[in-house]
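User: I'm preparing a small set of examples for a lab meeting where we compare how different chains pack in three dimensions. I only have the primary sequence for this one, and I'd like the structure in token form so I can line it up with the others. Please keep the answer compact; I'll paste it straight into my notes.
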Amino acid sequence: MLKKLALIAVLAQFAAVPAFAQATKAEVKAEAASANKSGANKTGEGSASPTGKSMAARADVKKEAAAAEKSGANKTSEGSASPEGKSTKARADVKKEAVAAEKAGTNKTGEGTK
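Assistant: Understood. Below is the structure token output for the 114-residue chain.
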């Protein structure tokens, strides 16, 4: 029991120490205000500069895109699927072919089956 009391007494002293080591909110605000006033941190310590962001106006970009679309310079965007592989068959013809293939047993049910 005596060891427990001694341990508590020692730990109680260490519990109060971090309160003295920390700066108060007012001190931190005053330090930040003085640093901002002197210009020591223009972009902030943790902030990253916007290097990848475009500086062109949105209207200018839209005009360029419209001109490129009109001239046919960009048929499809880089990430989009091209519409060139689209079928020209009528839907009814495709359905008839699918029914005929199903009857003949040439295509198994479901897309994922092999």
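A couple of notes for your slides: The chain has a mean pLDDT of 75. The helical segments are 2-21, 25-38, 58-71, 91-104.

User: Perfect, thanks.
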